[in-house]
Q: What sequence folds into this?
């Protein structure tokens, strides 16, 4: 069995044990949900937008330590950023912030980012559509 220290960085363990921004925002501007049908991780990302700027973000999820930590980290990263800046966040930035990710857990680490980016792209096309679901990673 793999030692948890080999699988999870200290950052991941801390964010998993004490996630930031967990829970639904009151009256979110955008709600995006989806999951990974292979491993079963599911997440919903909530954003509060003012104009093109993310003023608040949160998440709810059922998933592993990596997907929970990544969602927590991402909701902190996007606050105060414009939609364009959020769309420019790369998976590698997430991996670096999380302290590294092993190759077999990439989809766990990028679930929240994929949901967020796809939701924002759809929101840009149709701002009236505030709830987007069924996105698969």
A:
């Amino acid at each position: 069995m793999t030692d948890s220290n080999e699988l999870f960085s200290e950052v991941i363990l801390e964010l998993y044990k004490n996630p930031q921004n967990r829970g639904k925002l009151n009256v979110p501007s955008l709600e995006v949900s989806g999951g990974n049908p292979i491993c079963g991780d599911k997440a919903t990302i909530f954003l509060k937008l003012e104009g093109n700027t993310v003023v608040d973000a949160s998440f709810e999820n059922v998933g592993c330590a990596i997907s929970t930590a990544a969602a927590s980290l991402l909701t902190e990263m996007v606050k105060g950023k414009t939609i364009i800046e959020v769309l420019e966040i790369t998976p590698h930035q997430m991996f670096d912030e999380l302290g590294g990710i092993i190759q077999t857990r990439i989809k766990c680490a990028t679930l929240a980012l994929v949901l967020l980016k796809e939701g924002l792209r759809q929101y840009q096309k149709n701002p009236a559509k505030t709830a987007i679901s069924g996105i698969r990673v």
